[in-house]
């Protein structure tokens, strides 16, 4: 699956990183707690979150996350978007709640993997 596939499944909108939509996605992690993301995320994953602060981008960078999806219609500010641009990170936004978005991606074949 690619970031473009994820975007299509969720009906998401690209906020930055449109040139990287062909990146491969192997798993997903949905959390507003960055400590959980640090503990359970894998390479080439996407992060679904409603947390809109710079720590999200820093966490994504540390874990080689290829895309951050802000759920529940959350809109990151320009500081967060600029940080993402500097790190070549795709940022998407969807109106779906996290539970629904994760379920849609799981149903489409994207899994989180065992703990």
What is the number of independent domains? 1
Q: Please give the CATH architecture.
A: 3-Layer(aba) Sandwich
Mean pLDDT: 92
Query: Which fold name corresponds to the CATH topology?
Result: Udp-n-acetylmuramoylalanyl-d-glutamate--2,6- Diaminopimelate Ligase, Chain: A, domain 1
Query: How many alpha or pi helices?
Result: 5
- The residue fraction in helices comes out at 25-40%
The chain-level structural class is alpha/beta
- Strand order of the biggest β-sheet: 1-5-4-3-2
Domain DRTGG: 5-105
Protein name: DRTGG domain-containing protein
Detail the topology: elements first, then pairings.
Elements: H1 3-10, E1 13-16, E2 27-30, H2 34-40, E3 45-49, H3 54-62, E4 67-70, H4 78-86, E5 90-93, H5 98-107
Parallel strand pairs: 2-3, 3-4, 4-5
Antiparallel strand pairs: 1-5
What does this structure look like?
The protein has a single domain, classed as Udp-n-acetylmuramoylalanyl-d-glutamate--2,6- Diaminopimelate Ligase, Chain: A, domain 1. The protein is 37% helix and 18% strand. It has helices at residues 3-10, 34-40, 54-62, 78-86, 98-107; strands at residues 13-16, 27-30, 45-49, 67-70, 90-93. A five-stranded mixed beta sheet has the order 1-5-4-3-2, with helices on both faces. It is globular and about 35 Å long. It comes from Hungatella hathewayi WAL-18680. This is DRTGG domain-containing protein.
